[in-house]
Amino acid sequence: MKNKLKIGVYGISGCAGCLLSILFEDCFKQLIKLVEIKAFPLIKENNYGGDFDYVFIEGTVCFDEDIIVLNELRKRAKYIVALGSCACTGGVPSIKNFLDEEKTMKLVYPVYNHLKSTPPTPMDMHIKVDYYLPQCPPNKEEIIEFIKCITTGREFKPYREPVCYECRRKGNLCLLTENKICLGPITNGGCDALCPTNSVTCYGCRGPCKDANIKAYLDMLKEMGYTNKNMHDKMNTFAGLQFKEQEGNKSKWLEK
Predict the structure, then answer these.
(1) Of 182, 202, 180, 187, nearest in space to 243 by CA
(2) Who has greater pLDDT, 68 or 100?
(3) Contact 89, 246 (CB under 8 A)
(4) Which contacts of 37-43 are long-range, i.e. CB under 8 A and separated by 24 or more positions?
C-alpha cells in the first residue's frame, strides 16, 4: 500500500450523488486496486488527517463553511479534482444566482435562516482546481480512466467534442429538428449523448464547449420562436455562470 497514491474523497454542499458514483461496484473495485483511499467521510468513520496526492471533491460552494473546507483540503492535496457538475460549474444550486436571494432562502431553508449563504459557485472560484470530471452524475467510466491515467503516468485528456458529435455517431435524431431546446451543440460531450439517446434534451451538465458559438445558437433558437426566458431557464440549469461568462459581459440573454 505504501507505493499507492493517497486519495481523499470529500463533499461540500450537495446531494452526495457524485460520491455515490465512485461507489458503483465496478468503479470502486478499480479504485481500491489502484489507489489507497485514506479518507472518505461518507463511508469511513475514521479518516486520515495527513496530506494527499489527490483529493476528489463534489458539491457547490453555498456557505462560508464550504470555503473553509476547500481551503483546508487545498493545503493538504497535491492535486484537487472537481467531481461532478456542481463542483465544476456550480450545477443546479447556481440557479440561485439568477433568482431573488431572500425569497430563495426562505423557500429552501424555511427553518434554518441562521445559515450564512454565499452565491453558489463552482470550486475553482475559490481554490485552484487541477482536474475536472463533470456531468450529473459523473461518468463512472471517465472516473476509472482518470484513475488509470494518474496511476500510470499517462496524461488525462478531457473530452472536447460537443454532445452533437456523439449524437451523430450514434445515429440519433436531432431533437432541435423537433423544435426542442437541446444544448448539445454548445455543450461538452463525454456522456455518450446519454440524454438525447433517450429522447431527453441536453441540459448542459458537462459545461459549455470552449469554442461554442453561443450567439449563433441563441439566434437559431430565436428563429425557432423561443424567448429570452425560455433560453434563460434552460441554460441556467447546470452551467449558467459559464454560459454567461463565455458569451461576454455584453450578453443580454440572462436578463430577466
Answers:
(1) 187
(2) 68
(3) no
(4) 37/7, 37/8, 37/9, 38/6, 38/7, 38/8, 39/8, 39/9, 39/10, 40/8, 40/9, 40/10, 41/10, 41/11, 42/9, 42/11, 42/16
Q: How far apart are CA 84 and CA 132, in angstroms?
A: 8
Domain boundaries, the chain: 5-152, 163-247
Please name the amino acid found at residue 139.
N
Taking residue 136's Cβ as centre, other Cβ atoms within 10 Å add up to 22
- Domain 5-152 belongs in CATH node 3.40.50.720: no
Q: What cell was used for 47?
A: 479518516
Spatial distance between the Cα atoms of 176 and 116, rounded to a whole number of angstroms: 41
pLDDT tens-digit series, residues 15-73:
999 999 999 878 899 899 999 999 999 998 889 999 999 999 999 999 899 999 999 99
Name every residue whose Cβ is closer than 8 Å to that of residue 74 and which is 6 or more positions away in sequence.
Answer: 80, 127, 128
Long-range contacts of 24-29 (CB under 8 A, 24+ apart): 24/140, 26/140, 26/144, 27/140, 27/143, 27/144
Nearest Cα neighbor of 200 from 216, 171, 225, 178 is 178
Strand order in the sheet with 35-39: 35-39, 5-11, 52-58, 77-83, 131-133
Query: In what helix (H) or strand (E) does residue 214 lie, and over which residues does it extend?
Result: helix 214-223
- In 10 A of CB 41, how many CB atoms? 12
